[in-house]
Request: fold
Amino acid sequence: MFTGLVETVGRIIAVLSEPPGVRLVVQAPAIGGDARLGDSICVSGCCLSVVAADADRLEFQLGEETLARTALGTLAAGAGVNLERSLRLADRLGGHLVTGHVDGVGRLVSRVDTGEWSTCRFAAPTRLLAQMAEKGSIAVSGVSLTVVDVAAGDFGVALIPHTLGATTLGDLAVGDPVNLETDVIFKYVARFLEARDPSAVAGRA
Reply:
């Protein structure tokens, strides 16, 4: 479990082919020395297990499912990734509950920069938009954000200067893909309602 509060931005050193998957090698000096084999790390919104680590870098194996359902397969050496270690029970929950299980891939469709602030809109699958609400929570590439509004085909968020500078979201350009995870509490409530009355939850697929 994670909070969506990014600890550091890592840099991809290499993407190594390991059919049917790949090995992701990430330079992460801020947290590499503390990582252990098997630890769960949220990598741009996707929970991955550490398969090798030293003081400077972390390595992860991405299988076919991960490559097919997330935007991680589009990354290459030099790209940045948001990193967060798993939540400890004694930690403050400053963001929201994030599982690191990506629900789908969205895409930046517009960005309006006003000084050091940005307002962004992301296109998303209909089934995910149905799980969002104004002022609700959404994880975008592992970053906990508040939804400003939800439209028929996209949703909006407002990014403060700190978020833009401390995560990869500041580097996003129109057309870039992002990993999306909707609020886990909403999903459980929706599933409960659907089990009682399938017609009660619209937009689910």
The chain has a mean pLDDT of 94. The longest strand covers residues 8-18. The CA atoms of residues 19 and 35 lie 25 Å apart.
